[in-house]
Amino acid sequence: MAEAFLFELLQMHNSVHNPEERCGICLEEYGTLSRETGTMEVEIRLPCNHTIGSACIAIWLKANNTCPVCRHEFFPAQPRPYLEHGVIMNGLDDAEQPYEGHQQTVSEINADYCNELSLDIGISMISGLIAQKLTESENWSQGHTSWCLVSVSIYMASHLTGEPRSPREIATVTGVEADHIRFCYDLIYPERDHLANAHLLSLLQDTFDAVVPLNWPAPGYEFTDEQIENNHISHMLRQGYQRVCNELGLDADVVEISIQIAENLGAAGLMSALGPEGITAAAIFMAAHMAGCPVAAGRVAEVVGTSDVAVRAAYGVAHAHRYRLLEHAWLEEIGQGSVERVWGRLPLP
After folding, report:
1. What residue ranges define each of the domains in the chain, with the CATH number in brackets?
2. pTM of the entire predicted model
């Protein structure tokens, strides 16, 4: 319920533009980076007509169902989940978990774990909806701990949203063994379509451009932890290169060329010599010239966050390995012309 309300609340039509106003929770001006949340606060109008910062209200609603100003109730309070039995986790079942003031709800457990895994609020909302659905099902709520259900829900949500986390990664945060996460997912997999209600599908489509059929992770051990983690690293790498290229006004071809160059520089054993920033800068500087839209080394350095000298030094090393960095057929396939013409666009170090 909280996730659904928050999703509707954080739509653009609820945003307000009063740049001199301050959030009533963190007391920061709207439109500035909040020191409390580390994110940009957008002023959001609540159903009771009070306004609060977007990040602060998201945190508030993890544990509350009211307005932080007037205590107007936005949705029914969620009952505390009863303690499940039957699955032992690290030698303790739910009834034996350390007491921390109150028994955490599934929603709170989910929010905490997603935060520790650096998953954004959209993914947290998806996993929260799945966890709530599992909790409401007698088939699952009576045979599995809340920690287990949340772990499996995060595993599913991370794949559905294109930010996959492996069972091993999730286990380091939740304490539920990786093999147990996989085992429970295999049990759930045949019934996965029952989890995808209209709200979940709407959230996936509107926020993550997901399409039916959904990208559920494969059951069993078709993908190892290493493969999932490498896929996640590749995804993060692509996002980083897209961000830099977008800021430099470079198109998708430059992104593809620069990623190929960077991966081959790493495969050539140059990561330790150049470092991540050096490889990024050299790859994008080189790719921009090869695609016929050169960018100055100083400008690349500014966006990547390094120096002009460092970019030129890294490019010098990359230039010496240039013939090993890209397949000739691949260059021609993406429409960059003859190999000789492409290499001829590169400046001397």
Report:
1. 2-60 (no CATH), 101-208 (1.10.472.10), 225-344 (1.10.472.10)
2. 0.44
